[in-house]
Structures are given as C-alpha cells and as structure tokens.
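Risk register update: the risk that structure generation would not scale has been downgraded. Supporting records follow, first protein first.
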Amino acid sequence: MDNTIEDKSFKFAVRIVNLHKHLTKVKKEYTLSKQLLRCGTSIGANVSEAQRAQSKADFHSKMSIALKESNETYYWLRLLHETDFLTGKEYQSMESDIKAIIFLLTSICKSSEDK
C-alpha cells in the first residue's frame, strides 16, 4: 500500500543525513547540523511509529510530534541558510520538501483530532 507521508518523510530523512555529512565534512559545521539531523530524521521515525499506533489517540500523538519536528527542521534549515552554510539552491530544494511534509502532516493531524 502506498503511504505518501511515510515515503516522503523517509526520503527526506535520507536527504537530511546526506546534508549532515556535507555540512560536517565540507563546511566544518557541527552544532547546527546535529540539531538538524536529530529533528529531520525524527519526522520519519514518528510517522513510522504512527503506522502501528495502538489507538487513534496514539496515532494523533505520533503525527503531532512529527509535525513539531518538521517545524523545528524548517527552523534549522532557515538558520543554516541565513548563516551561509546552505546555498540558495540547496535551501530551496530542502525548503520545498519540508513545506510539503508540513502541509501533509497538518492535514493528517487536523483530520485525526478527536472532535
């Protein structure tokens, strides 16, 4: 079965790991990139956990955490761009992906809320 958010968040995590490698090896940036690595890979981990949730409330909780991690990831990407660790092209590519993930997770969270 095709699961768009699970696929997108996993592919994004792979990009984050590769970006972290680039930032540490080429740019010699270790602090901000570690924060980005943690939250950027946490998105997919929480989405994956939500797929095996024990209840609707558990599903909503995991997806909400994934959304929070997505927002934090977006923050670190913006900061890395504004401090010239990411070029405009690198940033725009990552920004497009994280905005799509945030949009999907926001929709999922809204539709899974207890009414």
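Supporting record for the second protein:
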Amino acid sequence: MEGIFKINGEDKKFFFNSRAILLDVLRENGYTEVKDGCREGECGACVVILDGKLVNSCQVFAASAIGKDIKTVKGLGDIHSPHLIQTAFVESGAVQCGFCTPGMVLAAYHLLKQNSDPTEDEIKRALDGNLCRCTGYVKIIDAVKMAAKKMRKNG
C-alpha cells in the first residue's frame, strides 16, 4: 500500500503494509522522535497530533492517516530553534532520560493551544496517559506552567 502523509508540514510518500500502524510507518521512515513504548495506547510515548487531535500512533492504522496532517515533536522545534515548551522543559529540569519527553511536550502543546492559562489540575489531566519513570511529574508540571507563562508573554 502507498500513501501521502503531511508530516510536520511536508508531504511524504510512504509504502507500507495495509495492516501497519502509524507508529511503525513513522519510525521506519526516520521519525524516531515518535517513541515505541507499550504499543497498547497506555504510555503516551508515541503520541502525535493528527489533524489537531492528540493520538497514540500505536492505536492508529497508517492507512487511516493518509492525507492527514501529522505533527511530531520535531514539527514544533529542534535543537537549533526550540519551541518555548521545549525550552521550558529543559530550563525546569523536566528532561531526564528523555524517552517520554516528546509525548509530554506534544501533550503540553496540545493543551496550551486550547488553554493558555491552565490550572495545575488541567495540566495533570492533559498529561494523563503520558507515563514517566524518572521525574515524578513535579518538574514536568512546572515546565508546562513555565511554558504557558512564556507563551502568554510572547503572544
């Protein structure tokens, strides 16, 4: 099967098995920032934004994403030009092993696009489904608060 996917603003043509999941198609084509965690939709390591919705790519058939807009964490920013959320995660010490970070950053981005001044409870709900084994979440929540403040300041 073949399909054109719009990933981080660029059209990409991929060939894949008709039963393939989006996670595998992305990773097989170099999008290793989408992490392969539990494959059950429980850990959040594989999240992407698909047509404006935060989804676990391990729970999406690749064929159903043909022609849709897909954003990975690299679509927000990179090491040379990081997004304010990525900067806030680094500055607040919310990045440890880094495995969960792409999913956490995308969950925070999705939240802050909808709500520029979330409460701590709203942040916790937005991050629910993203597991971290290193930080205990305190620094991650601090990072989202910091990012929200930075984004409000910068418009």
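The beta strands are 2-7, 10-15, 47-50, 53-56, 69-71. On this basis the risk owner (M.S.) recommends closing the item.
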